[in-house]
Amino acid sequence: MTGQVRTVDGRVAGRRGQATRQKLLDCLSEMLSSSPYRDVKVIDVARKAGTSPATFYQYFPDVEGAVLEIAEEMAKEGAGLTELVSGRSWVGKAGWQTSEELVEGFLDFWRKHDAILRVVDLGAAEGDKRFYKIRMKILNSVTNSLTEAVKELQTKGKVDKDVSPAAMAGSLVAMLASVAGHQKGFQTWGVKQAELKPNLALLVHLGITGKKPTK
Amino acid sequence: MTGQVRTVDGRVAGRRGQATRQKLLDCLSEMLSSSPYRDVKVIDVARKAGTSPATFYQYFPDVEGAVLEIAEEMAKEGAGLTELVSGRSWVGKAGWQTSEELVEGFLDFWRKHDAILRVVDLGAAEGDKRFYKIRMKILNSVTNSLTEAVKELQTKGKVDKDVSPAAMAGSLVAMLASVAGHQKGFQTWGVKQAELKPNLALLVHLGITGKKPTK
DNA sequence: ACTTGTCCTGTCATGCCGTCAGCTTACCGA
DNA sequence: TCGGTAAGCTGACGGCATGACAGGACAAGT
Predict the structure, then answer these.
(1) Shortest alpha-carbon distance between residue B8 and chain A (Å)
(2) CATH code (residue A98)
(3) What is the pLDDT of residue B8?
(4) Same structural domain for residues B106 and B155?
(5) Residue A1: which pLDDT band, with cuts at 50, 70 and 90?
(6) Which among A61, A89, A112 is the end of a domain?
(7) Is A214 domain-assigned?
């Protein structure tokens, strides 16, 4: 579909080139974890990768461009989050389990991609459509599934008609994303992971089904 | 407490100096709204304020330092968000109104301070304690009130004992903050403000009381 | 007019940005 | 084995932001 990996000036990247490119991405990823986004400099990434700044610019237009690349990669993996919702039951004990596993999976994913997700979030909040699209791609995989779940429950008359499935699903997912992004913060504040998860699961269950879960 | 405003090199700022300082802060605020945080340069802020970069460095150690100043200011105002919760009823129609007004007030505040809150959020997520503290200051004003509300409902036996008040309140507030920060995003995605608010209010009500609201 | 302390800016060394020409390396067909 | 060709990399450079300093402008009091 997209064809081959290309350098900025149009050459196709060969084996060695791709390796260098990947190394730069890896190093950038590391830097994002260890220092503020604002302070990540091309020269540092290049140095860390054992190459020169000029090489960096051969593969990426700028830091942002490289970040988008990393984010894109992560988004692919994030599409798998759909699994946490689609085809699952929302009634009885199974419903509670669905909630719990959704929360669990979500927090894990966020913890894993912590640094890059921060930047994506910022970009999206600043109105950058490219970042926004990536954020959507990840969240939609869950949001859409949840939206469907609500709609289905509505047709069965189990959920009030005046609930907007999209808004509800979107809000819940936003909550998960936000809490996930500040997991460390919660801990500092004295809320333990162990009590955080069930409460999130409870909220998800309440939001989707409108009822307390049976555990 | 803090006493007078001081320059970086320790002088006390007089009338004129304070005016310049404030102008720099205002211009920085504007710049944060119009361009990505990463691209905000001291020289641009100074130019916009009709002064020189050297002047900027007389009052602030760097961009981040000035941002903290703005954030601190906003946090003071944010403390007033407590009003949205403290002393309000969570039962019957009044409970629904409390939810609605909380959501309304929260979204308004966020929309108003949009740009600076993005940066605070990023700083906090990156683990910077100064930003984290400011974020807490704002959110705590609401979180603590909500926590109290849940505790009270628990003692009355109206809410399950296994709900962690702090975790629940924190999650709800995080949700509000996150949704507020991506309000534009929701719109792009096809969810209208008008349906977003009631759904958030519903979730808040469900989370705090465990019950559907009576409208 | 003179002094004092505040306030601002011109200037400079330093360092990063982003680009280019040109060199090195790898691959391939003859 | 030997060019030929394209990929891959870097030194070097002009440009710009940073951050520090010294000195000039300004206001207020004497």
Answers:
(1) 22
(2) 1.10.357.10
(3) 80
(4) yes
(5) very low
(6) A61
(7) no
Structure tokens at A211: 């009822």
Q: Burial, A4: exposed, middle or buried (Cβ in 10 Å; 0-12, 13-18, 19+)?
A: exposed
| Mean pLDDT value of segment B175-199 | 86
With a cut of 90, say whether residue A124 has pLDDT above it. Answer: yes
Q: Give the distance, in angstroms, between residue A5 CA and nucleotide C30 C1'.
A: 30
Angle at A143 between CA A141 and CA A145, to 5 degrees: 75
> Is it the case that residue B32 has pLDDT exceeding 50?
yes
Range of the domain at A76: 70-209
- Is A144 touching B (CB cutoff 8 A)? no
Our separate counts of H helices and E strands in chain A read 9, 0
- Does residue A6 sit in helix, strand or coil? strand
- Which tokens in the block code for residue B157? 């036996």
Give the span between the Cα atoms of B14 and B5, in whole angstroms.
Answer: 9
- pLDDT of amino acid A191: 77
B42 plus B110 within the same structural domain: no
Please report whether residue B214 resides in a domain.
no
Is the same domain home to B90 and B132?
yes
User: Does B204 lie in the same domain as B117?
Assistant: yes
Same-domain status, B129 and B193: yes
A215: in domain: no
First-last CA distance in chain B: 47
Identify the bridge partners of residue B12 per DSSP, sorted by sequence position: B6
For residues B28 and B83, membership in a common domain is answered with: no
**Best residue in A139, A202, A212, A215 for a mutation probing chain B (most B CBs within 10 Å):** A202
Structure tokens at B172: 């709800």
Encode pLDDT of B74-133 as tens digits: 999 999 999 999 999 999 999 999 999 999 999 999 999 999 999 999 999 999 999 999
Instruction: Over range A108-125, report the average pLDDT.
Output: 96
Mean pLDDT of A19-46: 97
Do A37 and B122 count as a contact with CB atoms less than 8 A apart? Answer: yes
Residue B198 lies in a domain: yes
- The structural domain count of chain A equals 2
Please give the pLDDT value at position A13.
82
CA distance B93 to B90: 8
* Cβ <8 Å between A200 and B171: yes
